């Protein structure tokens, strides 16, 4: 269990979780490039952290029966957009 004290950096934790989530979705040939980029480019931390937060929120909303479909759809779109942003940052714009 992780203790929340002064030495705990939530943004780094969220970035690591976001990286792990995204690695699970990628083909093996892209995983190493993403890992390397994530360790070298601190700008990815914010995007990966946001991706993790959006994925967790989407999972919570899907489990709740009372959440509006439009809200779930909005978070699905947000997750896809964040994935695209990270991939564009790592691999460049598709031609």
Folded structure, characterized:
The protein has 95 residues and is mainly alpha-helical. 18% of the residues are buried. The protein is built from four helices and no strands. It has helices spanning 10-25, 28-40, 43-63, 69-91. The protein has one domain (10-91). The radius of gyration is 15 Å and the shape is globular. The longest helix has 23 residues, at 69-91.
Which terms would index this structure?
single chain, 4 helices, globular
List the helices and strands and how they pair.
Layout: H1 10-25, H2 28-40, H3 43-63, H4 69-91
Helix pairs in contact: 1-3, 3-4
Shape: globular
Helix count from the secondary structure assignment: 4
Helical coverage, percent range: over 70%
What is the CA-CA span between the terminal residues?
45 Å
Q: Could you report the average pLDDT, rounded to the nearest whole number?
A: 88
Spans where pLDDT lies below 50 across 5 or more residues = none
Q: Report on the biggest sheet.
A: none
Strand elements, count: 0
Q: How many domains, as an integer?
A: 1
Taken as a percent bin, the fraction of beta residues is under 5%
Which structural category fits the helices and strands?
mainly alpha
Integer-rounded radius of gyration: 15 Å
Order of helices and strands: HHHH
Write a short abstract of this structure.
With 95 residues, this protein is an all-alpha fold. The protein is built from 4 helices and no strands.
